[in-house]
Design goal:
It comes from Ammonicoccus fulvus. InterPro entries: HNH_nuc. With 475 residues, the protein is of the alpha+beta class. It is 49% helix and 12% strand. It has a four-stranded mixed β-sheet. A three-stranded antiparallel β-sheet has the order 11-12-13, with no helix packed on it. Strands 1-2 form a two-stranded antiparallel sheet. Helix 5 packs across helix 7. The protein is globular. The relative contact order is 0.07.
């Protein structure tokens, strides 16, 4: 671990004068909260050139959530400055404040993880089981997906334990959380000692190049990491090849994005081949755009059929009778994509009749005394139940998690008396299902006449979060 007292290459910028003046004007509010008396006016004039926390009427003390709420109220109700320069200073000051808040969040996340692990150690929990679910709790508190929560917790540990200079820059407002993430990611392959070397070098570099862009910053960090330990970089690249994958992501206007993560030489070769073929087609008079031609060529070369030719597909479409057989504006839902216009589904079915495409059309009944009351005495849910739950929930039911459903889970575990039924079922990704099994986590299902299926999640700290089923056709 790097000793933060040795870090002397970074100067914390002084807050702008207008911000100091606003804070001083509102010392009365801090007095009302029981903080120490502010300095008198003579002392303020004497120390006008030096800013200390005590100048603003308080001394460092333990943070409380009520203080955060009060600060938010103060910011939300404050009057904006009347001059252009002051408005720009305000925008910059708020940006610095966001970075400082991210640094405090990082320290708080590390402290929470350490406190939880110590408490579990005191209860005699095995080392391998300590800290399970901490990342998910951080994610829920930050309104992020559990996957991102785990990455944020990892970033926090890196900053606090191994990148103190980067943390200091973040806390001062000279660095954004995203840039801190780039630094942590690029230096992850280094040892703690080498990471400390790059950490100190970066702060000096940032002082000389304060306006560097993200792409150049990432390149400079990568260059320095390579200079520090080439073997570690080569080792990381050899492992990265095992992460090759192809993923899809729905886009607006009935489009989808297909992303492939490939080896450098393979990815460059693939793109170059498509680009060369597109340029040749344009040279022969093709009027389509270069990007459109490349996309069509990719489809043609993978499916071995023209891009405009209809292909056999199987879509799980949830649509009401009214939308299917009349000209209503009510949207339908395509499983794995999301809401689509009902007219698009009607046109697709009409085209499918001509092209002999296979399309599965289903309707989901939301009312609890209909299809959703399907239940069984078996421990495992039937295929029909799993399909119905996946259609109802669309994506993982953990709040702020948008991952695909991998597990059809009992909300109340079967071992705890939970029945095998659709109301006691929920769709979760694998990570969220494993998190739910951690000590201290409980889930309770309920049914609301307006909101439909609800799952109330209680974390080990007693905080509760509510997950409601997505709206669907017929709602």
């Amino acid at each position: 671990m790097i000793d933060l007292s040795e870090v002397e290459t970074f100067d914390v910028p002084e807050p702008p004068p207008w911000l100091l003046e606003q804070w001083r004007e509102h010392d009365a509010w801090f007095d009302a909260q029981g903080n120490p008396e502010p300095q008198d006016s003579a002392e303020e004039e004497e120390d006008a050139g030096q800013w200390e926390p005590g100048d603003l009427g308080w001394e460092p003390c333990e943070l409380d959530d009520s203080e955060i709420v009060a600060w938010m109220h103060r910011l939300g109700t404050a009057l904006l400055p009347g001059t252009e320069g002051a408005l720009i200073d305000l925008i910059r000051g708020l940006e610095d404040l966001k970075s400082c808040a991210a640094a405090v969040q990082a320290r708080a996340a590390v402290a929470f993880d350490a406190t939880r692990r110590q408490a579990e150690a005191d209860r005699g929990i095995a080392v391998s089981r300590r800290g399970i679910g901490v990342g998910a709790e951080v994610a829920l508190a930050r309104r992020e997906s559990p996957f991102r929560g785990g990455r944020l917790l990892g970033l926090a540990k890196n900053l606090v334990n191994e990148l103190p200079c980067t943390l200091a820059a973040l806390e001062s407002g000279a660095l954004s959380e995203w840039r801190a993430t780039l630094i942590a990611s690029e230096t992850a392959c280094l040892s703690i000692e080498d990471r400390g070397i790059v950490d100190r070098w970066f702060i000096a570099y940032l002082q000389d190049h304060p306006s560097i862009g993200d792409t150049r910053l990432e390149a400079e960090i990568r260059r320095k990491v390579t200079e520090t330990d080439q073997t570690a970089v080569v080792r990381r690249r050899s492992k990265a090849a095992g992460g090759r994958r192809v993923t899809t992501r729905p886009l607006p206007d009935d489009m989808v994005e297909v992303t492939a993560v490939l080896k450098l030489q393979e990815g460059v070769a693939l793109y170059a081949t498509l680009l060369k073929a597109a340029e040749a087609a344009i040279a022969q008079g093709d009027t389509r755009g270069k990007g459109v031609i490349m996309a069509d060529l990719l489809v043609e070369r993978i499916t071995a059929r023209p891009a405009e030719a209809p292909c056999d597909i199987e879509l799980m479409v949830v649509i009401s009778d009214e939308a299917l057989f009349s000209e209503t504006e009510e949207p339908a839902h395509v499983d794995g994509y999301g809401p689509v216009p009902a007219a698009w589904v009607r046109d697709l079915i009409a085209e499918a009749d001509d092209a002999e495409q296979r399309i599965m059309v289903r309707r989901l009944f939301r009312h609890p005394d209909r299809t959703t009351r399907m239940e069984t005495h078996r421990r495992q849910m039937s295929p029909a139940m799993r399909k119905l739950i996946r259609i109802r929930d669309h994506r993982c039911r953990m709040p702020w998690c948008n991952a695909r459903i991998r597990h059809t889970d009992h909300v109340i575990d079967h071992s705890n008396g939970g029945d095998t039924s659709v109301p006691n079922g929920q769709g979760l990704c694998a990570a969220c299902n494993y998190t739910k099994q951690a000590e201290g986590w409980t889930c309770t299902p309920s049914q609301d006449p307006d909101l439909g299926h609800i799952v109330t999640i209680t974390t080990p700290t007693g905080h509760q979060y509510r997950s409601t089923q997505p709206s669907g056709p017929g709602d």
